[in-house]
Amino acid sequence: MENKKQTLQVLAKMPLWNERKFAQCCFFIGDAVIGDFEQHMLLGSFDLAIRDLIDRLKNVPDYDFQFSKKTEKVFNGMSEAFLHGNFDFFQKIPGYTETHELAPNEFSAIPLAVEAFDGEEAYLFKFGTQWRFAWRQWETKKVNCISLDRDEFIESLKSVLI
Fold first, then answer.
1. Closest to 38 (Cα-Cα) out of 26, 46, 50
2. pLDDT per residue of the chain (162 residues) written in tens, 0 to 9
3. Number of compact structural domains in the chain
4. Which residue among 42, 82, 123, 161 is least packed, with the fewest CB closer than 10 Å?
5. Helix (H, G, I), strand (E, B) or coil at 97
6. Is 74 helix (H, G, I), strand (E, B) or coil?
7. Is residue 21 within a helix (H) or strand (E), and if so which, with residue range?
8. In this structure, is the dihedral angle defined by the CA atoms of residues 121, 25, 50 and 59, taken in order, positive or negative?
9. What is the pTM of this model?
10. Longest dimension (CA), the chain
């Protein structure tokens, strides 16, 4: 997994069908797409999921995971915690559990509980002096990573709120 110099773009659209409001959304990073833009979500559910994501991103622990040497190792540890409730990765870090609460979605960097992001997996974490956005590509299962400005990501998410 390499740390590519690319940007994350949030694409959202709010169509109106039979007086019902829906939302479509996905994230673009170069040629990679996270989420299914063709999947329609209820607008209220989408708005709630984006607000929840913004709150989670603001509270991602400012812990430096560079000690692990590879961002893929960090991703896999977070994946085990998020998908299976297995916190072994975090429990093996000296002092981590004494200073940080263990929560399965603590590092998750996608909207949760909305159809467009079902099955997707992405995490935001500190690696050295930079924030890293790492995701597993749905089709290939390959883990990818980019450096990302957390505040810019949050602002781009705020721009799609209703």
1. 26
2. 455 557 899 999 998 777 789 999 999 999 999 999 999 999 999 999 999 999 999 999 999 999 999 999 999 999 999 999 999 999 999 999 999 999 999 999 999 999 999 989 999 999 999 999 999 987 888 999 999 999 999 999 999 998
3. 1
4. 161
5. helix
6. helix
7. strand 20-29
8. positive
9. 0.92
10. 56
